[in-house]
Amino acid sequence: MKRKRADQKSFSRLRKIITVILCVCAAVTALCFIFPLQSKASGDLDEILNYVITVDVNDDATLHMVYHIDWKVLDSTSDGPLSWVIIGTPNKHCQDIKALSGNIKDIRYTSDKGSGMKITFDRDYYQDEVISFDFELTQDYMYQMNLLTDGETVYSFTPGWFDDINVDHLGIIWNADKVISASPAAIIDNGYYEWDTSLSKGAQFKVDITYPNDAFAFSKDKKIAGQSKLEKLAVKFLPLIVVVGPFAAVMIFIFGIKFIADLIGWVTSAGFSATETKIQRTVIEYYPNCPGCGAPRPEGAENCVYCGMNFVKSEKIVEETKVPKQFSSFKDEIFGHSDAGTYKVSSSPNTVVRVAPIIVPVRTSFASYVRAQNAASASRGGGGHSGGCAHSSCACACACACAGGGRAGCTAKDFHKTNLKMKYFEEK
User: Fold this and answer.
1) Which residues contact 30 (CB under 8 A, 6 or more apart)?
2) Cα–chain-centroid distance for residue 216?
3) Cα 129 from chain centroid?
């Protein structure tokens, strides 16, 4: 009887010891999660003081683009000094890539985390330092013939933007030779259209430039395609190993935390950890006259050249299974196109149909989510800047629209249907 009571007391003490160990592990893990998040949220890492793109159209309709960027490092402690960045480009059709400033040690095209130029600097740059760098490239697949008006070709260009960085000044300088129209309104200086603006985090700025079809050697095979902003819905949790207490208690704790992290990630993403591509059709109706100043709308114009007011009267996504009554008369025209692009509605002179591929999330089971997370963790590399995107600063650019950039990287997409495979990669 005494021995039984002694065994019970020993078991009780052991249970208390294990409970204390698990509480310590939980506290340590919580601190590991909380403090890194606080340090990253303490302030901006970078600021772009000046971001200027000068564009000339070549005889073969490709674009000669010269970039000038003044980049200021605000924080070199949280994620280390700035040693390289990725500046987004629309697609893989880049050539004649060349550094124009001596502080660029290496420049090359990369498909990691999306299309872009990976620029490696001559040294590390620290807090309050400003690096000014220049480079040039030739870019293709940036226009579409007969986009809104037969006989006219439109370049539609959105420079790269940054989800986590403010741009104090964005300048687009475009050669005005042979141009029919440009939107939004711009000044012309020394034969170039000039747009000047600033971008807050995640903000975008698009320009449309229209030429006659015979201005350059345009090709009907090169079409621009709009793309919805891709939202990352899956939450990634990296397993933490805390060596405290007996080996068995630590292992139980680790597997418990891993299970809870995976469950939270799956619930947070609502079970969406995969994507698929679908065709989206949008019917856009324009005002025949500017709602601001009353000026007639030129064919293909998006904004009034006099007051800048947008001509869009309504914009509605239409599904084949549910077509609104006002669109039933030209239902066949809405669903008669499957290639990405914008098409006029013959029965309505102020109406177009925009056809674009979109990426939508697909619901998966919890087991599939865990397998995907484990596979992603197994394929991950390690080590400073080469193992991730810790202090890489990335921006996306495209002809119509694009997912935002920032230090966390970009989403790989094929905006111009050039068969660029949509995959995610870590920097290697």
Assistant:
1) none
2) 30
3) 26
Residue type, 214: D
Question: How far is the CA of 93 from the CAs of 96, 141, 346, 375, in angstroms?
Answer: 10, 7, 34, 31
Which of 321, 35, 64, 308 shows the shortest CA–CA distance to 185?
Answer: 308
CB atoms within 10 A of CB 96: 10
User: Computed from CA positions of residues 29, 33, 34, 35, in that sequence, does the dihedral angle turn out positive or negative?
Assistant: positive
- Taking residue 12's Cβ as centre, other Cβ atoms within 10 Å add up to 10
Distance of CA 7 to the CA centre of its chain: 62
43 Cβ neighbours under 8 A, 6+ residues apart: 74, 75
Residue type, 119: I
Relative orientation angle of helices 247-268 and 366-379, to the nearest 10 degrees? 110
- Tens of pLDDT, residue by residue over 255-312, are 777 777 766 666 665 555 566 777 888 888 888 888 888 888 887 788 888 888 888 8
Whether 200 has a pLDDT exceeding 60, the answer reads: yes
Distance between CA atoms of residues 10 and 4, nearest Å = 10
> Six-digit token pair at 298?
């030129």
Determine the Cα–Cα distance for residues 386 and 83; give it in Å rounded to an integer: 11
- Cα–Cα dist 111/88, whole Å: 10
- DSSP tag of 289: B
Instruction: Please state, as a whole number, how many other Cβ atoms lie within 10 Å of the Cβ of residue 272.
Output: 17
Question: pLDDT by residue (tens digit) across 208-245?
Answer: 999 999 999 999 988 875 443 443 333 333 344 445 56
DSSP state of 326: G
What is the rounded CA–CA span in Å between residue 118 and residue 134? 13
Torsion angle in degrees (nearest 10) through CA of 31, 33, 38, 43: 150
- Whose tokens are 């000046």? That residue is 50
Nearest one of 403, 423, 420 to 226, comparing CA atoms? 403
Encoded tokens for 377: 């963790």
Residue 86 and residue 395 in contact, taking contact as beta carbons nearer than 8 Å:
yes
